[in-house]
């Protein structure tokens, strides 16, 4: 059974792009992830140099070395999509990440709270209240595109981007919230900082989060921040994760 | 060890690229001009993924501490081995204590220095390509040292290679990108009926072009991008992603450069002229 009409497009000589309807919807993301899992187990794709990059309503299928023959690949993917319904979604996790919202880190917190006509406390309460779905990872290594921000927290990007946003900075911009995994230039409103490294090249999987997982923030003090930061640096911080039932 | 007495403007270690981590947001990186890098590695009978030095515009001054063999390629640069001029795509024997000085860029933008068996720098996530923040630095600095294997003797099958250089080429062959069909006639006219100049904002992440085409209000959800993807901003600016380019983006991906076009563009600098060409009958559409 095919719940969604998909479109398969050529994308240069080495890749094809599969598109689902252009909506931010968990049922679409789940279908993409289920199909990604299915493709990983196809003999043709689990050997050699293929990479699969899911995000929001699309899936990139790219070969690192060999050119893709589009017509053949397209009909192959159509056949696969039509027969994928038995595949189980890979296990998803909810990751609980600590955030210190002290003024030292939440450098735009006061300004944002006045723009949104919320008290700082109410803003933080709203930010930690719900979990956010990871719709994609990109822009920077380990940068998560998170969906599900409450309307009350939607605030425009800063008019002038900062040259340097701190590693771990937690920000708000439009319909999005997220963490800067590394120091980088950026235009998001910074409301706190997460002491846990999101991207670590020393690990075989440098980023523990996968597309489809959920993130929930919780508020910590400066003292806890300092402790978790050291734990994170020496690699003894224990991640809080909860299995999400399919 | 290879000592960088002077590092030059932007000298970096690159190999064929860092694959397998795009879904975690890691750009593939790797040599910008893969054609030139493959040729110099081939001359030394190296693995295609052997790490080379990528040398941009103003080259370094280098001192070799052990015997080995090298080959240069890519941009046309005046280079002296112990002050004697040497040439691209030729194997040279290096003796302990030899110095290599890059004097002047004549043509092109990025030169490559391959060494027998490749540079043995740190491997991070399966690749030696420098890319911050995956590696701690993007490029080498004065007095840095690079490890390589000692070779006292090596009989290359080919001493010198005649290479059809494309440093003169200005036409970039492109395919239609995923959002190509959303463009109107004015966009197409702007893209294919005029020349563009490379903007000062050009580096390993992306090349911007000075001239704009008409703007648009096409909105897409963030989706995967590739090296060679031409993005169109709402104001009509063209941004061509290169090897260090981000793995996802939110601008319409209107065109995709061929592998050869990426290599041609990698040899262009600010002010250089290029044009875009869509094959009359694209086999992939």
UniProtKB/TrEMBL annotation, chain A:
EC number: 3.5.2.9
Domain of life: Bacteria
Keyword terms: ATP-binding, Hydrolase, Nucleotide-binding
Keyword Hydrolase listed: yes
Molecular-function annotations in GO: 5-oxoprolinase (ATP-hydrolyzing) activity; ATP binding
Top class in the EC scheme: hydrolase
All residue ranges annotated as the Carboxyltransferase domain in the record: 6-209
UniProt protein name: 5-oxoprolinase subunit PxpB
Organism: Cerina litoralis
Automatic annotation (TrEMBL), chain B:
Domain Carboxyltransferase: 23-285
Pfam families recorded: CT_A_B (PF02626)
Top-level division of the source organism's lineage: Bacteria
Record keywords, A-Z: ATP-binding, Hydrolase, Nucleotide-binding
Nucleotide-binding is among the record's keywords: yes
MF GO annotations: ATP binding; hydrolase activity
Coiled-coil region: none
Gene3D superfamilies hit by this protein: Cyclophilin-like (2.40.100.10)
Name of the featured protein: Biotin-dependent carboxyltransferase family protein
């Amino acid at each position: 059974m095919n719940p969604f009409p998909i479109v398969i497009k050529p994308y240069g000589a080495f890749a094809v792009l599969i598109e689902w309807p252009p909506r931010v919807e968990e049922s679409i993301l789940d279908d993409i992830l289920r199909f990604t899992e299915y493709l990983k187990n196809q003999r043709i794709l689990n050997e050699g140099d293929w990479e699969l990059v899911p995000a929001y309503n699309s899936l990139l299928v790219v070969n690192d070395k060999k050119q893709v023959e589009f017509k053949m690949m397209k009909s192959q993917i159509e056949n696969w999509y039509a027969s994928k319904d038995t595949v189980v979604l890979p296990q998803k996790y909810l990751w609980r990440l600590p955030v210190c919202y002290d003024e030292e880190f939440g450098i735009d917190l006061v300004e944002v709270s006045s723009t949104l006509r919320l008290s700082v406390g109410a803003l933080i309460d709203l930010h930690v209240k719900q979990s956010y779905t990871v719709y994609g990872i990109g822009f920077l290594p380990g940068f998560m595109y998170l969906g599900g921000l409450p309307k009350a927290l939607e605030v425009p990007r800063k008019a002038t981007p900062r040259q340097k946003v701190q590693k771990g900075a937690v920000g708000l911009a439009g319909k999005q919230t997220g963490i800067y995994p590394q120091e980088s230039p950026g235009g998001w409103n910074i409301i706190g900082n997460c002491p846990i490294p999101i991207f670590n090249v020393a690990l075989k999987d440098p980023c523990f989060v996968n597309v489809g997982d959920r993130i929930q923030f919780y508020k910590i003090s400066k003292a806890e921040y300092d402790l978790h930061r050291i734990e994170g640096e020496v690699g003894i911080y224990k991640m809080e994760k909860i299995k999400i039932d399919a | 060890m290879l000592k960088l007495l002077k590092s030059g403007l932007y000298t970096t270690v690159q190999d064929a690229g860092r694959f397998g981590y795009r879904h975690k947001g890691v750009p593939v990186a790797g040599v910008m001009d893969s054609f030139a890098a493959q040729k110099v590695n081939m001359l030394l009978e190296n693995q295609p993924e052997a790490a080379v030095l990528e040398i941009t515009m103003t080259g370094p001054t280098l001192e070799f501490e052990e015997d080995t063999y090298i080959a240069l390629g890519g941009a046309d640069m005046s280079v002296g081995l112990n002050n004697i001029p040497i040439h691209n795509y030729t194997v040279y024997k290096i003796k302990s204590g030899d110095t290599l000085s890059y004097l002047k860029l004549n043509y092109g933008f990025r030169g490559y220095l391959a060494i027998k068996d490749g540079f043995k720098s740190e491997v991070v996530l399966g690749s030696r390509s420098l890319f911050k923040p995956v590696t701690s630095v993007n490029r080498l600095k004065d007095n840095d040292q690079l490890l390589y294997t000692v070779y006292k003797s090596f009989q290359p099958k080919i001493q010198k290679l005649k290479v059809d250089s494309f440093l003169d080429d200005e036409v970039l062959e492109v395919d239609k990108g995923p959002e190509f069909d959303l463009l109107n006639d004015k966009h197409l006219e702007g893209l294919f009926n005029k020349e563009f100049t490379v903007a000062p904002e050009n580096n390993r992440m992306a090349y911007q072009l000075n001239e704009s085409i008409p703007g648009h209000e096409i909105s897409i959800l963030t989706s995967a991008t590739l090296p060679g993807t031409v993005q169109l901003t709402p104001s009509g600016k063209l941004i061509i992603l290169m090897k260090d380019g981000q793995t996802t983006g939110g601008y319409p991906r209107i065109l995709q450069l061929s592998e050869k076009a990426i290599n041609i563009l990698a040899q262009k600098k600010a002010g250089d002229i290029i044009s875009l060409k869509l094959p009359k009958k694209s086999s992939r559409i």
